[in-house]
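Weekend entry, working from home. Most of the wet-lab plans are on hold until the incubator is repaired, so I used the time to fold the two sequences that have been sitting in the queue since the last round of cloning. Logging both here for the record. First:
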Amino acid sequence: MEDRIHDHELDTSEGIVRALLASQLPAWADATMARLDSSGTTNALWRLTGADGSRAVARLPRMESGAAGIETESALLPALAATDLGRRFRLPELVHVGRPQDAYPLPWLVSTWLDGEDLWTLRDAPAARSHELADDLAAIVASIGSLQGLAAPDRAPGSRGGPLRELLEQLRRWLEDPRWRAADLVDVAAIGRLADEAAEVADGPTPRRFVHGDLIPGNLLVSDGRPTAIIDWGGAGHGDPAQDLAPAWSILDHDLRRRFRDAVGADDATWLRARTIELEHALGGVLYYRPRGHALGDVMARTLDRILDDSI
């Protein structure tokens, strides 16, 4: 199978997608199809272009663990569209929620196509270094954090946005498990020092709010230099809102990071939790995806460099 990222992936090739469409969404069965390169790793993405020029995107989980994200996203998107966030920013709209069948045993979905370049594509453009971007990202984070009453899973211990003590244990496993060869790819001592600093807030009280959960550059689309669309809601849930401060390192440079922090009003404990959550995210991304040659490894390597160069 082309474009394999993980071991033991399901077949998400064009033939499988066409079979699913023919069976469940025949209006798109004859669409022109193009597999999309992206920094996402949970789903295989196929752009569908109809004879009339209309476009959509099919999302198929690569592994069984991705099925929960399809279920979360298919439940959330209609609800999000009715919120202030959905009125201010473009969000994908559901076209079809696919059922498992013999050729492909997991749920899948088709959503509307959103035009725009993502912030990873534009990482070296002037727009990526503008004060307006920091302000826009702070507004997005505040808007997401204000959402209430949405059906989404709670962050479990050991997951990003869950209790910090368990996340630090996961971070240590990334560093210490010999199969990841951490010393060959990252500064283990420096990361260990940051983990030690985080221990002082690991057991402190944390609020619980709705979070997107993956505000990395590839999930924010930009038009004319300003964020206009937010995609990939499969990892959304209820947990520590510090998780959604990830753009401070995944997107912004040092000067804009300070502006972003001021705009979101993060105190020292919140900022330290946010840095730690993104530290585990970046570390895992580098160790897992860099050896596999996937773009997310580069995204996470830049994020990790910024965290190590930074201080609260």
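Second, folded right after the first finished:
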Amino acid sequence: MISNIIIFITVAVSILAFANRNIFDSLKFNAFLIKHSNQWYRSFSYGLIHADWIHLGINMYVLYSFGKIVEHFFQIYFPEKEIFYYILMYVSAIAFSVLPDIRKYKDIPQYNAVGASGAVSAVVFSSILFYPLGELYILFIPFAIPSFIFGGLYLLYSAYMSKKQSDNIGHSAHFVGAIFGFLFPVAFKPELFTNFISQIQSFFS
């Protein structure tokens, strides 16, 4: 339910930004403006806009697919607080995922970024924490792999591409958002990590 609301808001704002460049420019992430003009809101607002329809569609599809899983487990482990915790995790992940970029690009006015990928990565990895043996399919791989293996490959890829810096994708935001989403539920209920390890051990036993 809450994922659908986030998707609706994000799609609506993104469409407005597609049609109005001033809206896009006022919301995009820019570490230089955050530091030198105190436009701290950009650490959050960039997650509401996207570069194009494909960027928007992929992020929202992934959020829809994994968000309902996380909402289900939040209802189990955080009854009566599940909506608050979910929103807190999502919004916090948007800000946390760009902390490395703020430090790296704070004096480079030309660097900009948009998209909810950091927060979506947080949702995906929160689902991996709860359900590490869930089966995921990756493009060009004709069989399903356990979600915890996908998670490990995703982190390695994101870390590698972040250092390589060969494209315009925010790989560091993906990496940080993923780690944040995994640790967020553990911070409130540490036994979730023990349960995560137990499920992985059962996979190899």
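Plan for Monday: verify the second prediction. Strands lie at 135-136, 145-146.
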